[in-house]
Queue: 2 jobs
Job 1
Amino acid sequence: MAELDGAVVGYVKLRRPTDLPSHRHVRQVNGLAVDPAFQRRGVGRALLLAAIDEARRRGAHRLTLQVLGTNPGALALYTGCGFEVEGVRRGEFLLDGEYVDDVLMAVHLGE
Ligand SMILES: CC(C)(COP(=O)(O)OP(=O)(O)OC[C@H]1O[C@@H](n2cnc3c(N)ncnc32)[C@H](O)[C@@H]1OP(=O)(O)O)[C@@H](O)C(=O)NCCC(=O)NCCS
């Protein structure tokens, strides 16, 4: 969580994608959000960099996430922190009558 003057202004969630032993080297960002009143001040980047450090500390070699193709701000944030696009599920979600891509991204954390 990110706090400012004792108030929560953002959070990031990190989890294992599955419980499979063969999947133990991977962690997933499973939620990242910053209060709209505190966006564009570096909070999202700080949370994401903390999640990368924590995933590495837990022994992960890969950190993955999914982001909607209609979210250019998040895509820019992830790319700026080293994530690369590994795949796109075209039209995966139907949102407000429009089919939206699900973009699969990952960063390699080293062995
Ligand atoms: C995406 C989100 C977490 C970014 O948080 P933030 O605190 O505003 O991000 P930062 O201030 O750390 O921005 C870091 C960089 O990300 C990019 N970025 C962030 N928001 C952006 C936007 N709205 N438009 C374009 N680029 C953006 C920029 O490159 C920015 O660097 P800069 O400010 O030096 O240009 C925030 O907008 C949010 O909570 N959005 C709603 C929830 C969401 O979409 N979560 C991600 C789901 S996958």
Job 2
Amino acid sequence: MTSQATRTLVLRHADVLVTMDSQRREIADGALVAVDGVVDWVGPSSELPARHDEAVRAGSARLLDLRGHVVVPGLVNTHHHMYQSLTRVLPAAQDAELFGWLSNLYPVWAGLTPEMVRVSTLTAMAELLLSGCTTSSDHLYIYPNGSRLDDSIEAAAQIGMRFHAARGSMSVGRSQGGLPPDEVVEDEASILKDTQRLIETWHDDRRHSMLRVVVAPCSPFSVSRELMRDSALLARSFGVSLHTHLAENDNDVAYSRERFGMTPAEYAESLGWVGPDVWHAHCVKLDPAGIALFARTGTGVAHCPCSNMRLASGIAPVRAMRDQGVAVGLGVDGSASNDGAHMLGEARQALLLQRVGFGPAAMGAREALEIATLGGARVLGRDDIGALALGMSADFAAFDVRGPTHAGSGADPVAALVFCAPVQASTCVVDGRVVVEEGRVATLDLPVHLETHRRLAASLLEGSVRAAARR
Ligand SMILES: [Zn+2]
């Protein structure tokens, strides 16, 4: 018999360790031990069991001394389109609302290649990890030129991020009354077949899973009712989650009323798109009946405050959702509608935006952090991430609070993570492995990688200019 060495990681002397456990403990001079990617012990450094000290001295355990840092459970991103990190701040899409913004970008995205998907996903994941995010979902819904979701999945494994890969799709092109141009939509039988292949190839439903596959038609205005319905049936036959965009802005609601004669929430319910295995992005315009429906059925929401502001979509009623028990997580959304994917920044904007909409007590710093951790975990259907407690996945982020950004915030260093300007994580651990160390991604040569990213982004734009000239 061969015995495999255990991987032990010891964290100690964090100024504060935020657990998000059932008592919401915040431990001063905090310590944590992870064994094989799972939290084995949490408490004050003074009570760290001696055997772990000995393991560190003997060199059989990895030690992180996090003096001057606040440690939080790894942040959970519930909505993204990582390929969009190739098409940030395009002038033609800087100042438009959702439908105009999409119409200007679809022709550019039609030039995506498998290499572009892989490289942009790595870039987006590096950016997220550096912001303290350890688990992310990604919604890839456009597959031109042989691109596949496998390209994103391989990127996640390479960089070491916990990943929920959403197999998006678009099937109703402009000629059929949808929004996307016909050349970027797929036929529905191929979508379902490829989705099933991805689930069978990649989906891991075990506890502490690093990879789950999600069934995710893009939006009611880019797929048919039949694909929505069949996607739900497929997902449920495999026990995987469902994700789409819903009720993002007034035009989105108007499309639903005109085409389907229903509100977005009624449309979702009519096709089986409610339940604890479903989460919808945005829901800015979810009406009171929709909020009650989501609460009653355990349906989740990915709240994306920066994107909602960028596209002038509005203020999602997160206070009302939370008060009624709706599961809410945060999403940075794609890099072309929120040009900065910083999860701590997103928590900060969630707090600020709720206050603009609903008053100064609408959201506090700890609630924003809770939504960014436990909220995201619940939305993704996980009970093994979002908190640092015995038996949870060893995913955490450490923020150095000794810099100018946090000067003078010693009265409440935890709230300062949200109230002060967002800083980058100096350490990020996923599955008990150090992925960000001293502010650098340890699993990728980022400067070299970004050079490739720049070259591919430029070639995508040049290709779209040439294609436009041919039309
Ligand atoms: Zn989106």
